[in-house]
Amino acid sequence: MAGASLGTEFPLLLPTFGSQSTSFHGFLTVGRYDYEVHLEVPHFPDVKGMTLSTDARLASIIKGCQEQLSQEEKDCRSVQEYLRKFQQVCAAATENEDNISLPQDAMFTTLLSHIETIGWSKVSQVSTDFSMIYLETKDESERLHSLRVKIQAGYPIEEPIVEADLPVDIDITWNTSEGLSCIMSAWEEKLSTLQELWDALDELDETALVLDPPNPTRKHTSRRILLSNHVSIQLTVSIAHPRSLPQCHLLGSSHLTAPLNTRLTNNYNEWDPERSIVSNLEIVLGVDVVKAKSRESGEDANGSDWSAECAVCYCLHLEGALPDLTCDHCSQAFHVQCLYEWLCSVPNSRQSMNFIFGECPYCTQLISCKVPT
Prior knowledge:
Pfam family, one: FANCL_C
Low-confidence stretches: 99-103
Protein name: Putative E3 ubiquitin-protein ligase FANCL isoform X1
Number of helices: 11
Largest sheet: 4 strands, antiparallel
Keywords: Metal-binding, Zinc, Zinc-finger
Domain RING-type: 310-364
Number of domains: 4
Oligomer: single chain
Structural class: alpha+beta
Helix content: 25-40%
Number of strands: 17
CATH topology of the largest domain: Ubiquitin Conjugating Enzyme
Shape: elongated
Distance between the termini: 71 Å
Order of helices and strands: HEEEEHHHHEEEEHHEEEEHHHEEHEEE
CATH architecture of the largest domain: Roll
CATH class of the largest domain: Alpha Beta
Organism: Penaeus vannamei
């Protein structure tokens, strides 16, 4: 009976009666326009637990009167009564904003036109009010990229704000008549200039055991890889010349890193841009790079055990930090925080100024670390 009464007053809403919930889908007239809506009413005809979904244009109207609508939902006893109040409140809101509705409509129409120009296939997601648009495209190597575009009020006069997972900024020359096409063209042009960089980094990620970052994205140009037990190297690859010798910083016990630093200084001119980064490192440093496939086995290509984890917590990453402190005697690596807490628990440890001294938890030889701030 309640459903029939609602259908008479709101003929554009079609009901679906289920065992768990009653739903309505169709159009609701607000002022001079019909807007698409979807209602889920678990306790029909009562408004308790009701959810109302609308199209983007009606959602923008609701934003301005959300507090009043929430109060009406509490006061109304039935869905039909609430919809009646909903129409009145939203219609009043549109009447009060008639002076700005036309510019908003024009902006929305222009934005849709610009999306049509670049193609809906390039759009992966749109917010309900079209204030946020996510674009996607593939580069020459079929890598998928995503671009976040924040539409400003006053589009296209106001230039959108863009966010991309890139190591460099996108150079956009904004043109109000072209709109999103400007952004799309500049973005794809920038992607094309970074192909050699990503080819080199992808090859490095596939070949070497990368310690950090744990999940590299397209904006990361640095990698920390393992060379041998407890010796690693931080590489920062040049964006402009990715096949050239990267910035290198060796990490580990000084008696192990010192000879490698010497080889790097003496042999840097043997770096060949035609070779991969891994092959060049092995030739210049005279050591094997631990390969990515050894992550699960725990052995390098020669069958030797390797370990990069902290010898206290047995983890690689601790709150974003790697085990950067190494014992000069046994070459075991530690997180500074882990070693500090260990030394604090040992009775014969002593602290002087901002350093703490004690026995290495692995070999019991003297070791020290700075007191974490």
